[in-house]
Amino acid sequence: MTESPTLPGTPSVTPFLMFEGSARQAVEFYVETFAPVVGGTQVTSLELYGADGPGPEGTVAACSFTVAGQPIRAFDSFVHHGFTFTPAVSFFVELPSAADVRTLAATLGEGGGELMPPDAYGFSELFAWVNDRWGVSWQLNSATPAEPGA
């Protein structure tokens, strides 16, 4: 596993996802789902809470991963919060093909919800917007036009 190329003290912005006990499953799902489609997708570091806590043993104390080269951080909060993810903040992913948009929309949306089904919209020839089973929102856009009848 490698660390982020950002040097300590260098200003940066990284999305940070807070889960309550399911961070490891979510991160593994994201990497398994995106890695076959886009390069630069991997877990770069993973630290779990041990028996001495403060979180439940085996939950994520800190995790760094990348999707299409975008660094993302995640962890499991051991404190319950009265909020979760919202589609007001989402990941916008440019994909190489219309088939990738359809496949990822189906995979990511399973157990979650479809906000905008894969379709041609005025701003895109093929776009989809889904929430995954953890409530994280993904906007998927094809970088190339959809094939006629597809």
TrEMBL record:
- The superkingdom of the source organism is Bacteria
Q: Which UniProt keywords apply?
A: Methyltransferase, Transferase, Ubiquinone
Q: Does the keyword Cytoplasm apply?
A: no
Q: Which GO terms describe its molecular function?
A: methyltransferase activity
Coiled-coil regions, chain positions: none
Keyword Repeat annotated: no
Q: Name one Pfam family in it.
A: 3-dmu-9_3-mt
Tell me one GO biological process term.
methylation
Occurrences of domain PhnB-like (ranges): 12-140
The identity of this protein, by name, is: Glyoxalase superfamily enzyme, possibly 3-demethylubiquinone-9 3-methyltransferase
